[in-house]
Write the C-alpha cells for this entry.
Amino acid sequence: MYRKNIWESADSKKMTAIMEFNKPYIEFLSKGKTERECVVQSIALAEIAGFKPLDSFKELKAGDRVYVLNKNKNIALFIIGKKPLKEGMRILGAHIDSPRLDLKQNPLYEKDGFALLDTHYYGGVKKYQWVTIPLALHGVVCKKDGTTVMVNIGDNEDDPVLGIGDLLIHLSQDQLAKTAAKVIEGENLDVTIGSIPLKEDEKFSVKANVLKLLKEKYGMEEDDFVSSEIEVVPAGNARDYGLDRSMVASYGQDDRVCAYTSLRAILDVKDPEYTSCCILVDKEEIGSVGATGAHSLFFENTVARLLAKLGDHDFLSVRETMENSYMLSSDVSAGVDPLFESVNEMKNAAFMGEGIVFNKYTGSRGKSGCNDTNPEFIAWLRKILDDENIHYQTAELGRVDAGGGGTIAYILGNYNMNVIDAGVGVLNMHAPMEISSKADVYEAYLSYVAFLTK
Ligand code: MN
Ligand code: MN
C-alpha cells in the first residue's frame, strides 16, 4: 500500500492553507491548558459561528446550531440535520483533558526554607520528564460563598514560573542506578512556590508568606484548597517546531489537536443532511470516568433533550439515534520516531506528514479492551476520503505486545454505533512537549469536515 507525503504533493495554495490553519491552533493550545480553558475557548468560537445554548431554544429545527455545557469541563455541539435525528448523527468525539500534576487537597507545606505544593499525577506520565522545567498553575478555587476564582500563575507575560527539583548529577550515583520509573517518585513531584519568610510572623514562616500572597492575589485562605482544582502544567506557549516550521511543539496535543480540528470542522459545516455533533470530553486519561467523562450519561441525556425539542418524546428514539449514528473517535496515534523505530511494525505504523491515522483497533495484548471497527464502516469511510483526495493512513499503536492504549471509541461503540479511532499522529505522547505535523493537523480537519457532510 502506497502512502503519499502531504508536503510532497502540496501546491503553494495548500501549503498556505496548512500554515494558516495552524496559527489559531497554536493559540488554542497556548490558552487551553486545562479542560475548563478549552471549554471556554470552544464556546467563544462556537458563538462566533452562530451556536447558541440549548436552553435558549424552545424548539429545534433543521439548521439550528446548538451547544450544551456540562459542569464547565465537557461540551457537546450540534447542527440539526435535514434528516430526522433518529436516522443517526455524525459524531466527532475528542478529549480535552491531558496528563499533568494535580495539587492535592491539602498541598502547601514548608521544608528547609522552601514552601512547596504537594501533587498527585493525573494520567500516564514519565515522572522524570516533569522535573527541572518551567511549570505553571492553572485552575479554579471555588469558595464557600459560591464564587469561583480562576488561577493562572506562570503563563502571563510578567509572571514567575514554578518548578520541581531534581538531584544534582554530582550526588546521583544511587539515583542513577534506579529504573526510570523510580528515578523520580510520585510523592516527590512537589512544586517549589517560595522561599521568603514572612517577617511579621514570629516563626519567619515561608508558608505564611505564600498564603499572604495567595490571599492578596486570589482572596483565598488555605482551607480553600479543599474546594479547588489546580493543575500543574508546563509553562509557556505552543511553538512552531523545526527550521521549516513544519511541526507544532506543545503541551497537551493529546488530545487537543483532535479537539481543535473537530471543533473547527463542526463550526465550518452548514446545513448538513445528518445531524452533526462534536463532543469534547474530560477524564479520558484516567478511564473516561465520572460526570464529565465519556462514560457519563450526559451525552445520552443531551440527545434525549434534543429529541424532545424536536417534538419526539419517545425514549426509544434515543436508543435508535445512538444506534444509527457514525462516529470518529478523534484521538491521537503514535507517530514513528526515527530515534525509536523498533517499537513499531513499519507496515502498520503512522508516519508524520502522511495524513489522518485510522486505528481499527487499539487495546493491548490480544486487542484486549478495544473497539474493533467493522470493515463495512471502514469501506464507507475510504470512499468518502478518496473522493475528496484526503490523505489518510492506517496504523496500530506499536508492534504486537509492545504495550498499548485505549480511547473513548469502545464507550460509544457500546450503543451499537459504528465507531473508529481517527486522529493525528504525535511524537512524545504524554510528555510536557508533544510534537505534531502541521500537515496532519490540517488533513484531520479536512477529514472531519468530509465525514460530517457526507
Ligand atoms: Mn488521547
Ligand atoms: Mn493520552
